[in-house]
Amino acid sequence: MKAVVFDEMGPPMEVLRLREVPEPEPREGEVLLEMRMASINPGDALFIQGLYPEPKKPTLPGQIAGNHGAGVITRVGKGVSWEPGTLVTFSHFDSWSETVAVPAERLIRLPPDYPLEKAAQFFNIVTAWDMLEWVDPRPGQWLVLTAGHSTVAMMVAQLARLRDVNVVSVVRRRLPGVDLERFGASAVLELSEGLSVLDERLRALTGGAGLHGIIDAVGGPLLGSLIQQTAMGGRVVVYGGQSPERFSLHNFDVLMKDLQLRAYVYRYFSDPPRKEDQALLERLAHLTAPASFHVPFGQAHALEDFRVAVEETLLRPEAGKRFFRMGSSQRR
After folding, report:
1. pLDDT averaged over the chain?
2. Which of 87, 261, 276, 307 matches a 20 to 30 Å C-alpha distance to 137?
3. Is 138 exposed, middle or buried (0-12, 13-18, 19+ CB in 10 A)?
4. Which residues form the domain of 42?
């Protein structure tokens, strides 16, 4: 079978190779999936460079790249009750391949007609939900999303709109043809105009009420500036770091506003889904399956096209999420 692999850790464009590798056999507690689609994420580059903490460390040589994807069960190992033919999504390893053996405990069941481009990035949906739940904005309050063109930001914005929350999407520069208001933004502000202009516009938008929440993937001076505009009891989630710069705060910026600041690493980074999560996961699948819940879609690539797919993901993420399409889904 074909797979995108690496034998040493390093920049993806330097170490990734397309290779024929043996099809895995499902061991006890595992299932064999015929892959349908795998998402290509910035975190995959961190994995390839060995920057993730345990247990997300590559096994070299011959590590298959990719951490998230969706596929159909074809065979099961001993002690597994999953039925062949079931569509599932997972967060584990080896997703950039035609088939993969995955521990059964890592699987999330999806409806058979669930859209593949959503199935392959279902953990982004979980991330968007989790961060919004923690910030917990009320109807009419103001939430700022940085990296507004990113997949997660667009998902958060749509979920926030369902709660009647006012969403401000901050972008470096608006992209022609990308309607962020369609994705739930109440307002879109461009960082290219400068932080002082951004501050003024935020104060005007909120009427001086301040920001209840910030969900940030950028950091740097932008985050420091936004925190200055939080309301009493404001909440800030950091889940990325696109800026190479640091942000600066004084203790009183936190203390005098009863500010809560936390990091978020996606829910199933270390541990598999729990039985008590099942109801929520089913709810999210039901909520996001309709076409009215939009996901930014860049392009689906064959594994053979991995160089273009990965390079475009790293250099032009605003152009939409890219995927690898495998198995029978290539013929759709």
Report:
1. 94
2. 276
3. exposed
4. 2-121+295-331
- Residue-wise pLDDT for 285-307, tens only, equals 999 999 999 887 889 999 999 99
Residue with tokens 């001076």: 221
- Phi first, then psi, for residue 6 (nearest 5°) are -145, 145
Q: What is the largest CA-CA distance in the chain?
A: 62
Q: pLDDT of 43-98, one tens digit each? A: 899 999 999 888 889 999 999 999 999 999 999 999 999 999 999 999 999 999 99
Are 307 and 250 in the same domain? Answer: no
Q: Where are the alpha helices (DSSP H) in 107-261?
A: 116-119, 122-135, 151-161, 195-206, 220-227, 251-255
**Which CATH number fits the domain that encloses residue 171?**
3.40.50.720
Q: Are residues 114 and 6 in the same domain?
A: yes
Q: How far is CA 161 from CA 71, 126, 157, in A?
A: 31, 16, 6
Examine residue 271 and state whether it is found in any structural domain, yes or no.
no
Count of domains observed in the chain = 2
User: Does the residue 275 lie in any domain?
Assistant: no
Distance, in Å, from the CA atom of 88 to the CA atom of 86, rounded to the nearest integer, reads 6
Residues 117/37, Cβ–Cβ less than 8 Å:
yes
Q: Mean pLDDT, to the nearest integer, of 24-35? A: 97
One domain for residues 142 and 97? no
Distance CA(52)–CA(46), nearest Å, equals: 6
pLDDT band with cut points at 50, 70 and 90 for residue 328: low
Residue 39 structure tokens: 């998402």
The beta strands (E) that lie in 155-310 are given as 166-171, 187-190, 211-216, 230-238, 260-263, 297-301
Q: Using an 8 Å Cβ cutoff, are 41 and 322 in contact?
A: no
